[in-house]
Amino acid sequence: MPDLLLELRSEEIPARMQRKAAGDLKKLVTDALVEAGLTYEGAREYWTPRRLTLDIRGLNARSSDVREDIKGPATSAPEQAIQGFLRKAGLASIAEAHVHSDPKKGDFYVAHVVKPGRAADEIIAEVMPGIIRNFPWPKPMRSGAESARPGSLQWVRPLQSIVCTFGSETEETRVVPFEIGGIVAGNVTYGHRFHAPEPITVRRFEDYAASLEKAKVVLDAERRKQIIATDANNIAFANGLELVEDEGLLEEVSGLVEWPQVLMGTFEEDFLSIPSEIIRLTIKTNQKCFVTRKPGADTLSNHFILVSNIEAKDGGKEIVHGNGKVVRARLSDAKHFWLRDQGDLPDLDTLKASAEKFGLDLSKPLDQRMAKLDALNVTFHAKLGTQCERVARIRTLAAELAPIIGADPALVDRAVVLAKADLRTEAVGEFPELQGIMGRKYALLQGEDASVAEAIEDHYKPQGPSDRVPSGKVGLTVALADKLDTLIGFWAIDEKPTGSKDPYALRRAALGVIRMLLEKNIRLPLSTVVKDADLVSFFHDRLKVYLRDMGARHDLIDAVLTPDADDLLMVARRVEALTAFITSEEGRNLLAGTKRATQLLAAEEKKGTVVEVAVSPDLLTLDAEKALYAAIETASRDAAAAVAGEDFRSAMAALSTLRAPVDQFFTDVLVNDEDPAIRANRLALLSSIRAATGTVADFSKIAG
């Protein structure tokens, strides 16, 4: 079966867009071919900085014939209706139609229309211009003489050539001809911009990939990543160092080169006095280079690793020299930021009022930056006030949370006051991703308590499902207060997540609160800090997602989570205990008996049957119902005591004693006795089963 090779070659595509663009191209092309009636065996996408490539194997040479039955009017219909049917079906006369019979509706016309298949070349040539013209680039641009015309081609960078060949292994491939934006599809591509700029004629994917390799282009992005990672680790090892791995940087760098050449550069050791985080970000952000360290060391070495796209004749000496000059200049700036942040601000006299408001010590650099943040009235959100107004809210909330978590209130207050101060440092101004990290370093430099410094960094955590939660009690308190203030504030101004849109990462904030409460065993009744029922419901939804991700069954979560549940830790513990119980034999059997009891009771309640409020022991006539009554009394008492002591496993064990008496009751006892008083009493017994199990969970919501 034939194969299709497609290459769209352009000026350099931004690295962050390449992987998605290649995936989009694969989906758009394969979807269009399938919709047109073609099938294929496999498809794979490739990308480099200058090309998107698609290799589709086992494509049909032509689409299948399609038979369509078009139902027409009754044979007795007026001429006008029959003519309309002929036009719709494409028939010359009614004699070409077939007559079908229906026992109820009588005879009617049907047209059996066969649409012949089409050659794959024709379909490809038809669909490709639309795919290219409407390609979902985030920021497309126009270029060349065509750009002045309305409706001209837009591409992420100027499109230069298109390869589109089609054919099987046993025949010569042919070019699928189509044109867009003045570019005509052909069978010619080009290799490396500098090493192999000559044209290359290609037929199918195998010789295409091999020809590009000879022309200094590694087509497979994953292979480029592997080359870079292996060579970088090897060159570091050869110099007695280890590479500080960075998957995001590796992905980006692999999208900047077609022929990766890994080299090592150096900078002066004096720059190592700068924190390693600043060095790494400076070199990564400005030069797209990796950093190294001595094996097992916490701090960096003065060697960095760069990836060039050129195989230089001098072994890369000039490339290393040029990159080294830029790295040194950037590190010089970074050192300036680092030292400036440790000095006094020039306008201390203007900051006294702000210092008094927050109890700040203007002899300390970080306190000065916090006072400056207040004096500048830096906005947090137009409807939620300034950053410092937010700090004041967090301060109040943290004071309420500190005794619940067991944190030192004075240390918590100090941490809250300084938590946002590094937003006014030059290091964070240059590298916003260092907020919190730099605050911790500056706090330690000015002699703050270690738990305060730790809390300044940790109060942003966890920032995602893979991020750790704060380790210390002070950090936990500040982080909880910070996230709760965010959620309470945005709910107050009705800026809630909708569908897939969550611009303020409120789902992540709620998940962070849940993880801290559950992973650190914190008992926090939400109602003490959250007054909005809708926000409590939002927490419930996030808790369901979290527990399901942890392996809990959705029906068990629903059985435990009531609308007024505000202690999320207790909900999680109930779900855990219920999961263990319901998977045991006693649990499964008790569930079956309980569901039978509740369903029977619900049916009678729906019919209006009288059910006594409480069981009357005097009306219990059979041994099985007497035994069940006694078992319920004991199990209810023991389960309630266990729940009060938050021992949910013991509560489940207490309920498990009901299994045998419930089974025996349904074997020996007829609930709907002819005597209304006995019937009402036995229904009350069923109600007490529901009440007993309800101390732990709503068994009616459990599947099975």
UniProtKB/TrEMBL annotation:
<keyword id="KW-0963">Cytoplasm</keyword>
<feature type="domain" description="DALR anticodon binding">
    <location>
        <begin position="595"/>
        <end position="690"/>
    </location>
</feature>
<comment type="subunit">
    <text>Tetramer of two alpha and two beta subunits.</text>
</comment>
<dbReference type="Pfam" id="PF05746">
    <property type="entry name" value="DALR_1"/>
</dbReference>
<protein>
    <recommendedName>
        <fullName>Glycine--tRNA ligase beta subunit</fullName>
        <ecNumber>6.1.1.14</ecNumber>
    </recommendedName>
</protein>
<comment type="similarity">
    <text>Belongs to the class-II aminoacyl-tRNA synthetase family.</text>
</comment>
<keyword id="KW-0067">ATP-binding</keyword>
<keyword id="KW-0648">Protein biosynthesis</keyword>
<dbReference type="GO" id="GO:0004820">
    <property type="term" value="F:glycine-tRNA ligase activity"/>
</dbReference>
<keyword id="KW-0436">Ligase</keyword>
<keyword id="KW-0547">Nucleotide-binding</keyword>
<dbReference type="InterPro" id="IPR015944">
    <property type="entry name" value="Gly-tRNA-synth_bsu"/>
</dbReference>
<dbReference type="InterPro" id="IPR008909">
    <property type="entry name" value="DALR_anticod-bd"/>
</dbReference>
<keyword id="KW-0030">Aminoacyl-tRNA synthetase</keyword>
<dbReference type="InterPro" id="IPR006194">
    <property type="entry name" value="Gly-tRNA-synth_heterodimer"/>
</dbReference>
<dbReference type="Pfam" id="PF02092">
    <property type="entry name" value="tRNA_synt_2f"/>
</dbReference>
